[in-house]
Amino acid sequence: MPCYNETATIAQIVKRVLESPYTAELVIVDDGSTDGTRDLLETLTDSRVKVFLQPVNQGKGAAIRRGFQEATAEFVIVQDADLEYDPVDYDLMLEPLLGGNADVVFGSRFQSGRPRRVLYFWHSVGNRLLTLLSNMFTDLNLTDMETCYKAFRTEVIQGIELEQDRFGIEPEMTAKVAAGGWRVWEVGISYSGRTYAEGKKINWRDGVAAVKCIIKYGIATRGQKSGHLRG
Length: 231
Prior knowledge:
Helices cover 38% and strands 13% of the residues.
């Protein structure tokens, strides 16, 4: 769980995650919060919670990388510290992994009969365009590359060298998973997006950076992609 200035939601999302029967551990990486989030993290007493504090704000990607390094359970799911993604969907995310059919699972906000809050039209257009561009390089047929909800066999993601510090981590992970020939599944999830007034942080500049990362890692990994699926 990457976390940055989330005093309004951190207690509730931690509660929801720990209520899931699938949660063996909760690794929280605070990315230099200055709004009192760290004080709230100090009050957590559940033995499954492990809190790691970044010395300064480095970006979501840096926090995710640290979380992957510290994970010890068999599977790992990226969970934002807001309330946009619901841990009730963990069963959907883990089903292909637990069944031995997948190495990586993407939770799609656009391939779902589940509830989804209606918000920004141009954000959805941007997400679909980024996914399309990513698919062109990776030859995957994802519907939501930018989703937060990505689940992995822990040994798989820990074996991938990641370097992006900000939101470029999403296309980087996707490109490198594709290059490794890992078995990728996608499932529909619910989504309760928040507004900028409610704390949403991503903006158009992150979209531009994502395009650059898609091209960078797409070109770098295209020739590495295995010609077969891994078992």
